[in-house]
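Q: Got a minute? One more chain.
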Amino acid sequence: MSHAKEKLEAFVTMSISVSQLARLRSRCDVQQGGWGLLGFRSTEDELCDLVRSADILLVGYEKITERVIQSAIDLKLIGVSRANPINVNHDAVNARKIPLIYTPGRNAIAAAEYTIGIMLTQARNIISGDRYLRGGSYLGESMKEIFRENPTADVIWDIDGDSPYTRLRGVELNGRTLGLVGLGNVAVRVASLAKAFGMHVITYTPERDSDRAAKLGINIVSLEQLLSESDFISIHCSVTAETKAIIDASSFLQMKPTVYLINTARASMIDQKALINALQKKQIAGAALDVFWYEPLPKNHPLLKMDNVTLTPHLAGATCEVPERHSRMLVDDVFSWMDGRIPRNVFNREFIS
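A: Always. Here it is, folded:
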């Protein structure tokens, strides 16, 4: 004989903050596993076993396949701590009319700050300067009294001949034009930060964003105009059939030779061969990339040998604040659903009553 549950069962594989886990446990019987608890994603077989009696499934990066969803016979709600729940089989969820909640904008602040950070890093050769020093270039002789201060009032690096002052001289953001491809949650914050640096901001984005652009004082322009006028181009749109390889070989021909290309979104929006060619031929000044066509980046990738690029391993959304933010967003929506209210962020809203 089956017995009614005293509390709904929630199985959690996402990275969840201590405060929000306590909130969830106040109303649900919570079990944890997977990446959020162990640092390794659960396999499909493991998930099928772990979620069998779960009413609520909160995941981060595990793939929730049709088989996993079918295994969870009591499943009533799925939450994904990502801006786009692409790791969930939508057809299987919709077939069972299970609401799918998610966390759009959870890392928008982090990604926006990072975008400005690697833009500055590329424009001012910050990483190159660090590499030169650690590699032994532009250094003085070893000193016995390492903590003795230079008695000269004017302490400067050697600027004669081949010096870091001339070799690594960069450009300022102030007064430059930033072109944003897309105007979503991240791009809006990038625009605000860029304006604080004194940049002029334009965007190529669908007309549905016209009110948002107007509030920010940003002109919506054609892609061709953005490519030709921008000193920095930053990618911020979602991957769709229309945006895949939106920056292709013809795009680079329209850009200024002094432009810097920034991408903290998804690599597939830039044609890989076209980018490599443009960088090798110095058609553009450089690029700062946090995302790649394969992750991790293969050790033989040509980008690794180029001195006009800044490369980082998909870190834009990685801050200490993000887990607390996405945890709170999901727990708030779980409670709304439990109380018969419509959650704020529902991916398949048609299945919310």
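A: The first strand starts at residue 8 and ends at 12.
Q: Perfect, thanks.
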